[in-house]
């Protein structure tokens, strides 16, 4: 009898232990690895929101495609394949997710990297994880070597040149170094299994200047991209103390688009209807065109006051609308306008700067199976000065201008204004 009781008790205890363990373990497993967004206020820099945050449904404030014919070759809308994941935002309102981290030691002057503390703000944090301990763990995790940026950072000469002639920065045109790094992360939760890779079979035919096509392992054309996902880019601080003070960076990438036809037509929009609004779908595309050395520019306005109010989201349904500074991890997944990023931001795609010999538009034909036809690469002409005035203009990979200051050049190419462009903002234009 007593033996039975003992057995029962032991079994019950075991069951309880197993249940408790499994609950704890699954809870741990489910905890999101995404770091929430958190202000970091250092003595030498404007406050910066570290961690993961979002820009949701930004307004397209500039869309210029007149530099190319037909104009459908340039678009400010997401590729057709990505539009569903971006809904309910419009195709030309691409959601973005970004992460900012702090690497102590990457700026030598330690009197600029002390935390400023205000008791009142720390008390307001209701989360179990206090802001202080959160910051400490976040910093510890990333203390040490500065991360390696991908793609590489443009040269300081290039940054000075574009900072002066295109971006209208105050001296120093290339801004100041900061201890902050920014990465862009895929905003959709669907992760594509198809890995894009470069074809290992360069053709000798037309000219070796046209890069090999970007293809998947099965030979089909790689997905089209509107926006790049650069990682660990060093943020710089521009125009310190002015109303136009901003953190920012830019990098170059291969912007690509699927098209059905680039034959000139008589229609007013200069292209076939299937190619408007983000290009053709992959299934009906006959071409994949690439804008090599397209510039991706990010400007985070830190001193705009009331001049750049953030866009209004849908009317809040309850009083529990999360504040952008909340320390919960929803900041990483908040895709209601304007997203969780607390500062006004301007995101620009344009055709200024870059490497002369690599900068071009080229297209490859695709067969009906979506496979790229290797020998079909061809150039497309581009008017980089469309609607503006260039500084040190180039005319494609065949031109030969002086670039380096050591040779008496200005430091970069295609500065100034003009050319195809897209610009998005999470703030209200007036
Ligand atoms: C370090 O930063 C402080 C505060 O910005 C400044 O006063 C000081 O001159 C800087 N020191 C050096 C060596 O740059
Ligand atoms: C960064 O490092 C300096 C020097 O080690 C230290 O004094 C400072 O408190 C650190 N800043 C932060 C925010 O941890
Ligand atoms: C840091 O700066 C932000 C933005 O100005 C502010 O909202 C926050 O209260 C500051 N936090 C601390 C601890 O000073
Ligand atoms: C800035 O650009 C102008 C031309 O737009 C040029 O005359 C001037 O020398 C440049 N300044 C520097 C410091 O490069
Ligand atoms: C171009 O390449 C194709 C196939 O690779 C070949 O048949 C053709 O002869 C080449 N043309 C020239 C001009 O080399
Ligand atoms: C374009 O217009 C010209 C004259 O207006 C006409 O001759 C030509 O057939 C038209 N082409 C197309 C593709 O409609
Ligand atoms: C983060 O999100 C997960 C899943 O939504 C939730 O279980 C967890 O409590 C959240 N953590 C914080 C700190 O809010
Ligand atoms: C470009 O110009 C420089 C100097 O004018 C010359 O040395 C070089 O050979 C030229 N390169 C090409 C590809 O024409």
General description of the model:
Residues 1-20 form the signal peptide. The protein is an alpha+beta fold and 430 residues long. It has one domain (34-425). It has five helices and 16 strands. Strand 8 (233-238) and strand 9 (246-259) form a beta hairpin. The longest helix is centred in the N-terminal third of the chain and has 29 residues, at 2-30. Residues 23-34, 119-142, 190-207 and 316-329 have low confidence and may be disordered. Bound molecules: 2-acetamido-2-deoxy-beta-D-glucopyranose (8 copies).
Write the layout of secondary structure elements.
Elements: H1 2-30, E1 38-40, E2 48-55, E3 59-64, H2 80-86, E4 96-102, H3 119-124, H4 131-142, H5 156-165, E5 176-185, E6 196-198, E7 214-216, E8 233-238, E9 246-259, E10 287-301, E11 345-350, E12 361-365, E13 378-380, E14 390-391, E15 415-416, E16 421-425
The site of one 2-acetamido-2-deoxy-beta-D-glucopyranose (NAG) has 8 residues, from loops.
Keywords: Signal
Biased composition (Low complexity): 314-327
Protein name: Glycoprotease family protein
What ligand species are in this complex?
2-acetamido-2-deoxy-beta-D-glucopyranose
Any low-confidence stretches, pLDDT <50, length ≥5?
Answer: 23-34, 119-142, 190-207, 316-329
Shape: globular
In DSSP terms (H or I, runs of 4 or more residues), the helix count works out at 5
- Indicate the proportion of strand residues: 15-25%
Helicity range of the residues? 10-25%
Category by helix and strand content: alpha+beta
Domain unit count = 1
Whole-number mean pLDDT: 82
Radius of gyration: 25 Å
Helix-strand sequence: HEEEHEHHHEEEEEEEEEEEE
Q: How many runs of DSSP E, i.e. beta strands?
A: 16
In whole angstroms, the N-to-C terminal distance is 85 Å
Main sheet properties: 12 strands, antiparallel
